[in-house]
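Could you help me review a protein record that somebody else here produced? Here is the record exactly as it was handed to me:
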Amino acid sequence: MDNLRVIAKNVISALGGVRSAALQLGVSPSAVSRWSQIPHRHLHRIYEILGDGYEPEKIRPDLAKLFHAHSGHDKVSKSDFKIEELP
C-alpha cells in the first residue's frame, strides 16, 4: 500500500470513519471510501477539525512544495497557504 493511501486511511479513521468523515467534509460516504489520497480541496477543513499533526503538507506530502506557509505563526490558517498552479 502506498504512503498516500496509508495517510488517507489514517485521516479517515481520525475523523471517525468513512460516514463521519463524509458528513464533516460534505461529501458522500462512497466518495470517501474510494479515496486513495485526500483530495487537496479538503486539506484545510481536515486541519481545522483535527488540528496539529494533520497539517496539509503532512496529509499530502506530494503537494508540500506547492504550499508556502508564512513564518512567524503558531497556528496555521487558510490564508497561510497559497497553492501555485502546476506548469
Remarks:
- Helices lie at 3-14, 18-25, 29-33, 43-50, 56-59.
- DSSP finds five helices and no strands in the chain.
- Confidence is low (pLDDT under 50) at residues 70-74.
